[in-house]
Amino acid sequence: MIYGTGIDLTEIGRIQKIVDAGLKLPEKVLTPAELVVYNRYGSKRRIEFLAGRFSAKESYSKAFGTGIGAAVGFQDIEILDNEAGKPEITRHPFTGPAWVSISHTDQLVMTQVILERGKM
């Protein structure tokens, strides 16, 4: 049974401007394991990765029902790719299964997260 669903749309250029301004967005949004992946990429793919994880965590917080803040923060959610390259939510505060989809164009990232109650 679906507990919640969240969708987010993020402009990649907005994320680039924040990073260019030196506001340490990668360290705020990405967990240590995600930062390792982020640092492996070249500059264009790096920003796409950061924008995707930012958007997916926003989607998660909407599905959770709280938004990003005191109840759930960026560091509470970890999204890593499996062996096939599919992003998976590997750590999060919700007790049921969590599903994520991340898609992007040159300008936008769109994400969706579904949280389920009960067993898979």
UniProtKB/TrEMBL annotation:
Keywords: Cytoplasm, Fatty acid biosynthesis, Fatty acid metabolism, Lipid biosynthesis, Lipid metabolism, Magnesium, Metal-binding, Transferase
Positions of Mg(2+) binding: 8, 58
Cofactor (UniProt): Mg(2+)
Family annotation (Pfam families): ACPS
Residues of the signal peptide: none
Gene Ontology molecular functions: holo-[acyl-carrier-protein] synthase activity; magnesium ion binding
EC number: 2.7.8.7
Coiled coil, from the record: none
Domain of life: Bacteria
Residue ranges annotated for the 4'-phosphopantetheinyl transferase domain, each copy included: 5-110
KW Ribosomal protein (keyword) present: no
InterPro entries (UniProt xref): 4-PPantetheinyl_Trfase_dom, 4-PPantetheinyl_Trfase_dom_sf, ACPS, Ppantetheine-prot_Trfase_dom
Keyword Nuclease: no
HAMAP family on file: AcpS (MF_00101)
Protein name: Holo-[acyl-carrier-protein] synthase
Organism: Lactiplantibacillus xiangfangensis
Highest classification ranks of the organism: Bacteria, Bacillati, Bacillota, Bacilli, Lactobacillales
